[in-house]
Amino acid sequence: MNSSRKIIKEDFVQKRLITYLEKQGWSKSLQSAELWEHGVDIKVRNNKFSRYWLIEAKGDPSESVKSPGGSRSSSLNSALGQILTRMHRNGKRVYKYGYKYGIALPHSFRGMVIKKFHLM
Asked: What's the pLDDT score for residue 102?
C-alpha cells in the first residue's frame, strides 16, 4: 500500500466539475446529488440552450484498499453501468437536443481509461 498517494474523493470531483461547468455556461437547473442519494450525480442544463448533461462521478479508493487499481476498474465499470441504464429515448426530441451523458473521474484513472478504451 502506497500511503503517499493523494486521495481525491467523489465529492471533490463533483465540486470541481460543477465549478468548471458553471464557468462554461452550464449552470441552469444544476442539481448535484449527495453521496447517499440515488440517481445521477450531476444534472445540468445549458444557460442558453435546452441541452442537458447527466454525469456520474467517481473518486479514488480509500487508503485502506489493498488493490487501488482493481477498485478503480470496478468504479469505472459501475459508472458506465449507471450511465448506460439512464440512457433512454422517451419523448419526441431530436437526439442533439436531448440528454448528453458523461463520467467524471480523478486523474488517477487516466491510464486505465486510455488502455481500456484504446484512446489516443
From this structure: 93
